[in-house]
């Protein structure tokens, strides 16, 4: 039985991950964490998952919860995730990180911290999005330089980072396939007399509102035709099931940073 602890247990994803652990064979919830001062600390973690009481209280004691698990699943914020990675490395425990909004410097630090423990770090745990990542590289290469690339994502109004981690990864996949540097060609802002579109840029546009779970479209726009690759998330449950699948996989993985392409065998 793999013992999984969940950090961000009082959050939108935390509740769905606890529900997914509850329905998955071979895993059990060993602990639940949220930030000190959160009103749900001390309450049973099953309530946020819609399960009723399951006998695991939400704690704010990171060291104790990590010591008692085999794998920590963490859906919080980049800063919290880096701290969790550091504590998992101290305790030699594996980690799955779903938080998004990492800077390039934070990503480098995460790789450093994960040198001695296995870590799955992925901006999107759904099978559908990860298949999109895989085919996007081929689509970009086949359509080539004659097609302009624009990426549009839409999420709920509570989302804190922009563009989404998924949109950034899509931009990186396309840029790599076309031999471009995402950090140089991503264009996040057009306003006023901003001039004609450059050939190389990848436009990154963001919509926020209501309760949209998550939608991503990559447009390949040519002269006289365009191709659109869209993924729409209907619920958070495939992200949470994906994170539990990643936890089972990472429990026996070698140290280093992995992502869902590794977990799903899509490399
Ligand atoms: N990789 C994926 O498939 C997905 C990633 N995400 C990402 O997961 C993250 C969380 O998303 P949501 O659940 O919607 O956010 P949320 O705001 O509902 O939940 C985050 C939780 O983390 C807790 N938290 C904050 N500081 C903490 C600390 N120091 N220690 C422990 N807990 C702490 C908050 O109190 C909150 O309960 C975001 O970065 C989001 O973009 C969301 C969905 C899917
Ligand atoms: O914050 C969210 O909700 C989501 N975040 C992830 C991202 O930033 O890509 C994945 C998903 O789209 C939901």
TrEMBL record:
The pathway this protein participates in, as annotated, is: Amino-acid biosynthesis; L-lysine biosynthesis via DAP pathway; (S)-tetrahydrodipicolinate from L-aspartate: step 4/4
Q: Supply the EC number(s).
A: 1.17.1.8
Q: Output the Gene Ontology terms for molecular function.
A: 4-hydroxy-tetrahydrodipicolinate reductase; NAD binding; NADP binding; oxidoreductase activity, acting on CH or CH2 groups, NAD or NADP as acceptor
Question: Can you list the GO cellular component terms from the UniProt entry?
Answer: cytosol
Predominant location of this chain?
A: cytoplasm
As for subcellular location, the record says: Cytoplasm
Choose any GO biological process term that the UniProt entry carries and state it.
diaminopimelate biosynthetic process
Q: Name one Pfam family in it.
A: DapB_N
Residue positions annotated to bind NAD(+) are 8-13, 34, 98-100, 122-125
Transit peptide as a keyword of this entry, yes or no, is no
Top EC category = oxidoreductase
Question: What keywords were assigned to this record?
Answer: Amino-acid biosynthesis, Cytoplasm, Diaminopimelate biosynthesis, Lysine biosynthesis, NAD, NADP, Oxidoreductase
Catalyzed reactions per annotation = (S)-2,3,4,5-tetrahydrodipicolinate + NADP(+) + H2O = (2S,4S)-4-hydroxy-2,3,4,5-tetrahydrodipicolinate + NADPH + H(+); (S)-2,3,4,5-tetrahydrodipicolinate + NAD(+) + H2O = (2S,4S)-4-hydroxy-2,3,4,5-tetrahydrodipicolinate + NADH + H(+)
Q: Which SUPFAM superfamilies match?
A: Glyceraldehyde-3-phosphate dehydrogenase-like, C-terminal domain, NAD(P)-binding Rossmann-fold domains
Positions of the catalytic residues: 155 (proton donor/acceptor), 159 (proton donor)
Q: Where does NADP(+) bind?
A: 35
- What is the role of this chain? Catalyzes the conversion of 4-hydroxy-tetrahydrodipicolinate (HTPA) to tetrahydrodipicolinate.
How would you summarize the oligomeric state and partners of this protein?
A: Homotetramer.
**What is the protein name given in its UniProt record?**
4-hydroxy-tetrahydrodipicolinate reductase
Gene source species? Geomonas silvestris
User: Encoded by which gene?
Assistant: dapB
